[in-house]
C-alpha cells in the first residue's frame, strides 16, 4: 500500500460497519460437492464458509500447504494442493476429489495474483507471463479439466470464475489484461458447456476488503474508488456466488456479474 493510501486510511473520518454475515436456514447445497481453487484467500474462503453452512461438502485448493493446513483445522474442511502454473496436475486433483466424494458438482475458480511493480514501460516478459499463466492460462485449463469430467460423468454442474471489475476497464497491466481475458472466457465457456447442462458465469468485484489489498480485520473499509464510498465485503461476493451456483441460478449463463458499486459499468477509471 502506497504512502498516500496509508494517510487516507489513517485520516478517514467515515466508517462503515461490516456487512452482516448471512446464514441460510435451508441446506440448499446438501449433497453437493464443491471444489474452490484459491479458497484460502479472502473471497474464496468466504464462499467456502457460506457453502459449507448451506450443506455443501467443500474442498479448498491452493498452493500454500501451511496455510491450507491451518484452514483445515480452523473450519474442518478438506484441502488439496492445486497449482495454476501446473495445468498437467489438474486431472489428478479432480481424481483425488472424486475418489473421496464420489462426484464433483461445482467448481469455483478464485485463484489469482496481482501484477508486481505496475509500470507499462518497465514491464518485463517474466512478470507478464507469471500473471497470465495463473490468472488466465491456469483458469482456462482448470475449466477444461473440470468440464471434461462433468461431461464424461453427465453432471449438470456449475462453474464460477472470480474475476474483477478491472476486466471491464481499459487495461495495460498483465492483471487487467488477464481479467479482460476472463470476460471473454466466461462467455465462450457458457456457449460451449450449456448443451451439457453446465452453466458458467463470473463475478467481477471491485476492490474488496481482503488481505490481497492489505486490509485486516478491524481496518476501515472507507474507499474513494466508487460512489458508495466503501470497499466490497467478501460476504457480499459469497452471497452472489451462492446464487450463481445454485439450482435457482441455472438459467444465468455466460454472464459477468459486477459487484462494484458501478465500477466497470457506468464508472470507468
Any overview of this molecule?
Strands 3-2-1-4-5-6-7 form a seven-stranded parallel β-sheet, sandwiched between helices. It has one domain (29-259): 3-Layer(aba) Sandwich (Rossmann fold). Strand 4, helix 5 and strand 5 (158-162) form a beta-alpha-beta unit. The model has no long low-confidence stretch (mean pLDDT 90). The chain is built from seven helices and seven strands. It has 269 residues and is α/β, with parallel strands linked by helices. Helices cover 38% and strands 13% of the residues. The chain starts with a helix and ends in a 10-residue tail after the last strand. GO terms for molecular function: oxidoreductase activity, acting on the CH-OH group of donors, NAD or NADP as acceptor. This is SDR family NAD(P)-dependent oxidoreductase. Keywords: Oxidoreductase.
SSE topology:
Elements: H1 3-11, E1 33-37, H2 42-53, E2 57-62, H3 65-75, E3 78-81, H4 90-101, E4 106-109, H5 125-152, E5 158-162, H6 174-193, E6 199-205, H7 234-244, E7 256-259
Parallel strand pairs: 1-2, 1-4, 2-3, 4-5, 5-6, 6-7
Helix pairs in contact: 2-7, 5-6
Organism: Agathobacter rectalis
GO molecular function: oxidoreductase activity, acting on the CH-OH group of donors, NAD or NADP as acceptor
GO biological process, one term: bile acid metabolic process
